[in-house]
Each structure stands twice: as C-alpha cells, then as structure tokens.
Design brief:
With 100 residues, the protein is an all-alpha fold. 60% of the residues lie in helices and 0% in strands. It has helices at residues 8-23, 29-40, 45-52, 56-63, 71-78, 92-99. Helix 1 runs antiparallel to helix 2 (29-40) and helix 3 crosses helix 4. It starts with 7 loop residues before the first helix and ends with a helix. It comes from Billgrantia ethanolica. This is Helix-turn-helix transcriptional regulator. Pfam families: HTH_3 (PF01381).
Length: 100
C-alpha cells in the first residue's frame, strides 16, 4: 500500500517530533534517519542513498547504527532533511538548559 504524501506542515511536524524523540533519547540516530527517510521524504533506501551519494549498504548500516562514517558523510546524509550533525551535552539537565 502506498503511503499518503505529507503536506509541508505535516512534514515539518514529523521532523520536529522525530528530533524531539532523538533529543529525549527515545530513539537513536539510525531510527530517526529511517523514520524521516520513509515518512517525511517517502524514499526507499536505494533512492535516498543515490540522492546523498552513498551506497545502499552504508545507508542500511547507518539506519541500524552499525556504520562507522565520517562527519562529512553524516552531514550529507542528513542535509536533505534540513538537519546537520552537531555537539550536544550528554547530561539531560545541561541539554535542557541549552535548549531553553
């Protein structure tokens, strides 16, 4: 069954929710990438890998949190989603203060 395409507001809401879940450590980076690739962009692994210039196997490894890639590649992978890799505090209290 084909997924319903999201409108721009729905895509942004989904993106914000996934980032919130990631920051709250409810999901990991691989889960976030998979959810966003499928639900926000509606792309297969093959199509997304071609879009960002990596192999489908590397993308699969990323989505399963089994990849060892460079920061540059990580940024290329997240760029179509409007995201970039950055530094965040590990302590929840410090992270909360940084985000408010």
């Amino acid at each position: 069954m084909k997924r319903r395409e999201l409108n721009p507001d729905e895509r942004e809401a989904k993106l914000v929710e996934v980032v919130r879940q990631l920051l709250a450590e409810e999901i990991n980076e691989g889960d976030a990438l998979r959810i966003l690739r499928r639900d926000v962009l509606g792309l297969s692994q093959d199509a997304y890998a071609k879009l960002v210039g990596i192999s489908r196997r590397t993308l699969s490894d990323l989505e399963r949190n089994r990849a060892n890639i460079t920061l540059d590649t990580m940024n290329r992978v997240y760029r179509p989603l409007g995201l970039r890799v950055g530094l965040l505090p590990r302590q929840p209290g410090m992270l909360e203060r940084a985000l408010t």
